[in-house]
Amino acid sequence: MALFDLSLDELRDYRPDRDEPADFDAFWKRTLEEAAGQAEAAAFTPYDAALSTVDVYDTSFSGWGGHRIAAWLVVPKGAEGPLPCVVQYIGYGGGRGMPHDHLMWPATGRAVFVVDVRGQGAVSHDRIGHTPDPHGGGNPQAPGFMTRGILDPEAYYYRRVFTDAVRAVDVAAAHPAIDGERIAVAGASQGGGIATAVAGLHAGVQTALIDVPFLSHFRRAVTVTDEDPYQEIVNFLATQHGKEEDVFRTLSYFDGTNFAARARGRALYSVALMDQICPPSTVYASYNHWAGSEKDITVYPWNGHEGGASYNRGAQLRWLGGRL
């Protein structure tokens, strides 16, 4: 592992042109309106997690296509609400795990709403998922999720994931224990990419914690790293000749730089300069396009995709401070 991308001075000024389709906003407006129209009531079922200082609810809500999405709502026991809430999204391959995996934010007096990722959560014993993806993409795909439905934005996997994630904010905000005016979105890697998308799509999100984000500046990512998951796209193009234009057209609807340019609130990013999974230039492409009211970035010069790990969680706790 070594420095392989732009220098830090170059990264600070790196603000590439965005590849944005003309109907980007119309596409997402229609997608989210369709999902809202298919939504049924969320279910919050008390769950005995053998934890004495929090109340836990095994949650199910309607995401894209009306499909039921699993989540955990974890609320400090006895706290006087309504409380601020962190909506937490999960990294690639992972699911919502178990309630005892998510006690940091309740320990600060905030609620946390941990959202499952459809179709994921079967590769790690500590990141178990419970939500299937009943909708297939139709085209051949490389192993993984990056090329599922990649020839058509209507069918692309992350259309469903991002829609689920936006719906999660609405569901959390409507719960009586949560103050809908004080919601943050958070995630690392894929979770950071999802949080960026939600910050750009949901007008009610005013705070985002975006840690070594994935799903940003796709055209550069696939040319500067040969690590998965971006390599899944390369593998697909290596066999599906003539599909490049369709692939990158689809990805332009899901690029973190386009969502960051629509963000309204504040954000704390993190970046690791030796990260070969989410290259630093792809992180800065999103960060430098962030259009919200305030932004900061924590830089880890000697780290790979783990970023600041526990140190970064401490940085998030301090930064969030009086902001939420």
TrEMBL record:
Acetyl xylan esterase domain boundaries: 1-320
Annotated region described as Disordered, given as residue ranges: 125-144
Listed InterPro entries: AB_hydrolase_fold, AXE1_dom, CE7
Single GO biological process annotation from the record: polysaccharide metabolic process
Pfam families the UniProt entry points to: AXE1
List of residues binding substrate: 92
Keywords: Hydrolase
Any one Gene Ontology molecular-function term assigned to this protein's record: cephalosporin-C deacetylase activity
EC nos: 3.1.1.41
Lineage: superkingdom: Bacteria
Active site location: 189, 275, 305
Protein name in the entry: Cephalosporin-C deacetylase
Species this protein is from: Streptomyces smaragdinus
Taxonomic lineage of the native organism: Bacteria, Bacillati, Actinomycetota, Actinomycetes, Kitasatosporales
